Amino acid sequence: MVNVSKLRVRERAFRRLVGLSVFEFDQLVAAVAQEEAAQRARCAAPRVRAVGAGHPFALALPERVLAVVLFYRLHLTGHLLSCLFSLDESNLWRDRTHRLAPMLLFVLPVPVHDHLLSALEEAKDSSKEAPVPAEGDKKKAPRRRIGTLKELLEAFPELRDVCADGTEQQVPKPKCKRESRQFYSGKSQCHTVKSQITTARRLILHVTGNTPGAVSDRLLLKASGVIHALEGAASPEKRKSRRGKRAPRVTKRRLRLDRGYSGIEKEYPLLQRVQILAALKGTKHSKVTLLGRMWNRVMVSRQRIQVEQNIGHLKNWRVLSGLYRARVCTHQNTLTLVAGLHNFTLLGRLHWQP
After folding, report:
1. How far is Cα of residue 27 from the mean position of the Cα atoms in its chain?
2. Which residue range is the domain that position 10 belongs to?
3. 304 and 162 housed in the same domain
4. Cα–Cα distance between 169 and 296 in angstroms, integer?
5. Residues 178 and 289 in one domain
6. Which end of the chain has fewer CB within 10 Å, C or N?
7. H helix or E strand, kind and range, residue 239
8. What pLDDT is stored for residue 282 in this prediction?
9. Separation between Cα atoms, residue 133 and residue 298, nearest integer Å
10. How far apart are CA 34 and CA 330, in angstroms?
11. What is the C-alpha to C-alpha distance for residues 25 and 10, in angstroms, rounded to an integer?
12. What's residue 44's pLDDT?
């Protein structure tokens, strides 16, 4: 049976196996324990049995969290996990799917994942005002959870350069002929599920997933609401001019895209806070000039390499590389959870805001 106390003795091996350091793993376990206790305290409805009654867990909380992280890190089968932790695979699956995975999605700095065409919903929610606390209430207001990309950008105004790109992962061939045509990707020559990742400074800010592989990256970007969120967010920090006589210049956020999005800036001519920088793509009769190739290299490729590196870091977690064995509808939550672990290792804390 796998024991956390024995694994943590070798810190380097623990980091390579789990993907987290011992200190980060302890922080994660403590946050999950706190959230589990808070969920039990919120159960104020009348109950026949007390909260927490019933047969206790066969594994301690560190071993339970280790089983979940090992599944995402190594994508082990249920039978192998049951052999490692001396527990039936159905119990491990229920504990991971219904208990620990929702808690991890809550405590980790996960990227926001607005649904498709979310710009209309953001316009409706903006009209609602937040309740104002009473003056005599001395209780500390709870931390407001960031739920949209617009709120995330306003919380971090220093994020100016944003990159977006799509990635695909192979899924089993659907039995339905209609779904088989939708999920077949001509680029990968197999059935895939497509996801879009938006990053800035190595942090993954936004995720859009559960999209059939036949959908183009260009269409997915327009439907995800990322451009509308960048335009609707407050302007980034002002840069001070070198000379005192000139007024400070207000910078725009830059969205850097690869050749698959060439010409998309022409479809958004009225953007005032966003500058779309897409790589130039040549055709059969008109090739990209030398100046265009320099533009692609200096202004786009060198700056957007971060999103390619982030996709590579995410695929180090084996659940996101190779064949995705679970249901397609769970792919976005899996991608979001792994991205939250990635952000946690970079930020060093379990919240977006310090």
Report:
1. 20
2. 4-41+58-107
3. yes
4. 27
5. yes
6. C
7. strand 238-239
8. 87
9. 50
10. 26
11. 14
12. 61
Q: Are residues 301 and 156 in the same domain?
A: yes
Tokens of 38: 């808070």
Q: pLDDT (tens digit, 9 = 90+) per residue, 206-257?
A: 999 889 999 999 999 999 889 988 888 877 766 555 555 555 555 788 999 9
The Cα diameter of the chain in Å comes to 76
Among 207, 173, 177, 219, which residue's Cα sits nearest to residue 192?
Answer: 173
- In one-letter notation, the amino acid at residue 142 is P
CB 303 within 8 A of CB 279: no
Q: What radius of gyration do the chain's Cα atoms show? A: 23
Q: Are residues 201 and 265 in the same domain?
A: yes
The per-residue pLDDT for range 78-103, each reduced to its tens digit, is 999 999 999 999 999 999 999 999 99
Dist CA 246 CA 252 (whole Å) = 18
Distance CA 216, CA 230 (A): 21
**SS3 assignment, position 168:** strand
Q: Is residue 121 part of a domain?
A: no
Q: CA 184 from chain center: how many Å?
A: 24
Structure tokens belonging to residue 246: 């000139």
pLDDT category at 192 given cuts 50, 70, 90 is very high
- Specify whether 253 is located in the same domain as 307: yes
Residue 302 lies in a domain: yes
Please choose, from the candidates 266, 308, 301, the residue with its C-alpha nearest in 3D space to the C-alpha of residue 166: 308
In whole angstroms, give the CA distance from residue 93 to residue 113.
Answer: 24
41 burial type by CB count under 10 A (0-12 exposed, 13-18 middle, 19+ buried): exposed
Instruction: With beta carbons less than 8 A apart as the criterion, state whether 333 and 101 touch.
Output: yes
Amino acid type, 235: S
* pLDDT at 123 exceeding the cut of 50: no
Q: What does the pLDDT read at residue 126?
A: 45
Q: Tokens 């970007």: give the residue.
A: 221
User: In which residue are the tokens 């084996």 written?
Assistant: 318
Count: domains in the chain: 2
- The model's pTM: 0.86
**In 75-139, which residue ranges form alpha helices assigned H by DSSP?**
78-85, 89-94, 101-107, 119-126
> Cα–Cα distances in Å, from 132 out to 58, 144, 154?
45, 13, 20
144 burial (CB, 10 Å; 0-12 / 13-18 / 19+) is exposed
